[in-house]
C-alpha cells in the first residue's frame, strides 16, 4: 500500500478491465516517471473521448459524427445486418473483409445476475430497424454475432425468439470456428472469416 495520490491512482487503474493489481502498480509508477507533456497528452486524449465521441444514431457504433462511416457508406448491403455486443466486435469482423452489410451494436449481452436485461440493450432499436424500409430496401438477413459464451448464447437465443415472427427474415448465427467461452476481439481473422462465411440458420 502506498500513501495518498499514488495509491488512489493504482486503485483507479485497477478498476480498468484486464488490469490487475500488479499491472496497475506498474502503470502508476510509469506515469510518475513520465514527462509532464506526455501526461498532458494522455489527459487530453481521455477528455476528448468523453466529450467528442458519440454513438451512431443508426447502429450504435462509436463515431465522431451522428452516423458512423459504415452506415454512411453507400456500397454497404442494406439488406444485411450483423448484430454484435460491443463496438470492438465491429472492428474484429471488419478485419475479416468478409462482411459487406451493416451492423447493430447491442451495447452488451444479457446478464440477469449483473442486472442487464433486454431493456438495458439496444434490442428495441434493432426491432425498429428491421421493421423499417431504408432507401427502398428491407432487411432480409440478421446475422447474430454475439460472443460464444453463456451471456452471448443467451442473448442469441432471446434475439431468435424476438425475430422469428418477422416475415421473410432469415436469422443466422456465426458458425463453428470460434472457441466457446472466448471473445470476438481475440479471434484471428481466418477463424472469424470462416465463422462468417459458414454461418447457419437458427
From TrEMBL:
UniProt zinc finger (C4-type) residues: 56-71
SMART domains in the record: TOPRIM (SM00493)
Pfam family, one: RecR_ZnF
Taxonomy, superkingdom: Bacteria
Bilayer-crossing regions: none
SUPFAM superfamilies: Recombination protein RecR (SSF111304)
Xref: HAMAP family: RecR
Main function: May play a role in DNA repair. It seems to be involved in an RecBC-independent recombinational process of DNA repair. It may act with RecF and RecO.
Name used for this protein in its record: Recombination protein RecR
Protein source organism: Lentzea indica
Taxonomic lineage from the root: Bacteria, Bacillati, Actinomycetota, Actinomycetes, Pseudonocardiales
Gene (UniProt): recR
